[in-house]
Amino acid sequence: MPNDIAIAALAHLLGDRLTTSEADRRLHGQNETYYPNTPPDAVAYPETTAEVSAILKICHEHSCPVTAYGAASSLEGQHLALHGGISLDMSRMNRVLGVQSEDLTCVVQPGLTRKQLNENLRATGLFFSVDPGADASIGGMAATRASGTTAVRYGTIRDNVLAVEVVMADGTVIRSGSRARKSATGYDLTHLMIGSEGTLGIITELTLRLHGQPECITAATCRFEDVQQAVACVIATIQCGIPMARIELLDHMMVRGFNAYADAGLPEEPHLFLEFHGAPATVAEQMASFEEIAQDSGARGWKAATTTEDRNALWAMRHNAHYASAALGQGKHIWPTDVCVPISHLAEAIAQSQADALRLNLTATIVGHVGDGNFHAGLSVDPNDVDEMARAHTFTHTLAETALRLGGTVSGEHGIGIGKQDLMATEHGPALTYMRAIKHAFDPQGILNPGKLLPPVTQQEAAE
Amino acid sequence: MPNDIAIAALAHLLGDRLTTSEADRRLHGQNETYYPNTPPDAVAYPETTAEVSAILKICHEHSCPVTAYGAASSLEGQHLALHGGISLDMSRMNRVLGVQSEDLTCVVQPGLTRKQLNENLRATGLFFSVDPGADASIGGMAATRASGTTAVRYGTIRDNVLAVEVVMADGTVIRSGSRARKSATGYDLTHLMIGSEGTLGIITELTLRLHGQPECITAATCRFEDVQQAVACVIATIQCGIPMARIELLDHMMVRGFNAYADAGLPEEPHLFLEFHGAPATVAEQMASFEEIAQDSGARGWKAATTTEDRNALWAMRHNAHYASAALGQGKHIWPTDVCVPISHLAEAIAQSQADALRLNLTATIVGHVGDGNFHAGLSVDPNDVDEMARAHTFTHTLAETALRLGGTVSGEHGIGIGKQDLMATEHGPALTYMRAIKHAFDPQGILNPGKLLPPVTQQEAAE
């Protein structure tokens, strides 16, 4: 085996925290979506930054691939050890290293999940805002540039990471950023690492921005005759500057999924799920402004969820969209895909994707963080049905091309991973050359998550 | 002359838009601060991206330095052609290429200034929020990672640039980002370019986020017995989550400067200048919450500025801080410096800098975007007074080291430029190696703004 020497050296370093058992390898080869199980050659469980550094030194020396593993909730296969080698399981580096309440910051290890962090913060009156639905690890969220339902108000993970400690391919440990809110000193390596999908370095520590728990939180739902009306309402809301904390669109198929999965009993029409944060008079004013816009847009069935229980139930339902889609697909796998477009083109992009699903005879739900112009389609697929998989591929790539045509991007938050590499050249053109140059400068051996994010070099590129 | 061949080729390309006149060269060698006039060998006035590309191809071929020039308002000498070559004056690329009101975005050329942009946007009900005081060019603001008084609410330039077109060192034109609010596709070259001070590429187009004009804007001022009280008020305000649009601290010396420069008639005590944005009830609620905190912190002399005239007068005064400092220094040059610290350490950092100024017998004003933990000191210096310049150097470097000791950064918004290179290794440690690797990969000849941002390679680094 090509990685045997590296694995032997790692076993010497880590003892029983380096495993090659079939069960552990298969566990680390699993994913939430349609990719086949892809086991690594071995799984390493580092406990300190120094250990991560030592692991990378060994892997660098022996050209052994290293793929970071957080909570395995990535949706484009980012955590799968596609070229074998080591799955670097960060779950034992899951401590909160410090909370600086006065500064609204905290320092955490990457294996901590967002729910663990918020549990830990409960007594402080502060919270970590980024909420992609899954209980993702903070390191994984940073590596894949996660966002989610609250990004429209509090920003994506990109806006909420102030600093990182990163172990580079050869084991060098660097720090980028500080606990200060902003800096103008040098190249922005922090944001270069965020979204690099573990291909430029392994994040071993993060300094995060926190937010004060709002004095008042109110959620609400309403529904519309068609998606166009719902999107018109969203556009008007954003344009009026109402600082929505959440504004989520569910199409009629997604609502049908919730009815199938959780007996939600909702009319099968497009819905908006909303949340307002602030001081009491501020929230009241925001809700009144929104209601006025919603009525003008044809909304009906306005329901406020003022108690914590009602609110939690609403968002728990929303966060089960993946499983509700699966329920609708009668237990098939879900192929989740996402795009992001300028909000003025949102209705067109959604209509196009609904028409494409019909044309391709696919069951698809649509749900989106529409305040950002970002939406997901969840396709029900049987990975063994070659024809259906081909149609799903056509759907996702048509949707991506639609997003690009409308001035958007092929992914707002799921990333590139394995699934969208063939769209990188289309989206980025000559900029791809400079991404490759960074990868080569930072990881000349190509040991960090090989086979992800950057597409293979084409013959034309190789000839240049 | 080493750059004669390149200049001859550029003259052929640009005709009379390439000048070598003494007057034009000296004009482009000026700066707002204490650096001596540093004329380039020639000044080029491109009008299109294609011309910028052609210019860089020529300069790349002949290893001729190229330094971008916007509005010359940078404060660490970023626009000075330190190693000669071409000053690339972007002032003729100053058009608004499009405003997408529905999306709250616009596309502009880099030579446009922020005031020109906001003038252009007036009829749309939208505005561009980043306000560093000077009427800087948008390209220059992006290149130096500018922020300013409104960053506490609307973010720095980093948060307000969605996409860039950049001409790379060899003339290749790339695009990074899109009009979509967010993306998770590939390395974040947009944020790598922002703050790179023209050393990685020349920004030729920017897609910006805009914000809706708030329905209601109210400004106010209050004063405190000492800086500690004022900062305690700021910390409590930020912790309570009051979304301040502006919260600026002026120390007693800065107030004395305003009295000297503009006959402001203010009591010579630390002041806060404030602004609240939002819907009417929201602003009223914010102001009431702030007043309560301010009173608890010992504030007095509360004055609201509700009319547009009063508000404009207040911020015009604030924006003249540089000239007010000069007035206090009786016409001396101003050596402006800035740092940013976690807000919990702000009072300590300011007290330390006031003590340092006294100890070093320097006249210093302090003014800051304190909601971000960012503040400026303006030192009155005579560039011909070797001893005073040495003391000013000691002051700025002591302040920078204080900021680092307190978990902050050596610059929140002025950047590195010429003046702070010797602090890069201290702030960034081993990360500096990776910054150099990017520079080398993107600009192997080192033609882009040589002598800025990255310090010269040390003997130790060279030996490695």
TrEMBL record, chains A, B:
Keywords: FAD, Flavoprotein, Oxidoreductase, Transit peptide. Its cofactor is FAD. Its EC number is 1.1.2.4. Residues 35-213 form the FAD-binding PCMH-type domain. Coiled coil: none annotated. PROSITE patterns: FAD_PCMH. InterPro entries: FAD-bd_oxidored_4_C (IPR004113), FAD-bd_PCMH (IPR016166), FAD-bd_PCMH-like_sf (IPR036318), FAD-bd_PCMH_sub2 (IPR016169), FAD-linked_Oxase-like_C (IPR016164), Oxid_FAD_bind_N (IPR006094), Vanillyl_alc_oxidase_C-sub2 (IPR016171). One of its GO terms (biological process) is lactate catabolic process. It comes from the Bacteria. The keyword Mitochondrion does not apply. GO terms for molecular function: D-lactate dehydrogenase (cytochrome) activity; D-lactate dehydrogenase (NAD+) activity; FAD binding. The keyword Flavoprotein applies. Belongs to the FAD-binding oxidoreductase/transferase type 4 family. PANTHER family: D-LACTATE DEHYDROGENASE, D-LACTATE DEHYDROGENASE, MITOCHONDRIAL-RELATED. This is D-lactate dehydrogenase (cytochrome). The lineage of its organism: Bacteria, Pseudomonadati, Pseudomonadota, Alphaproteobacteria, Rhodobacterales.
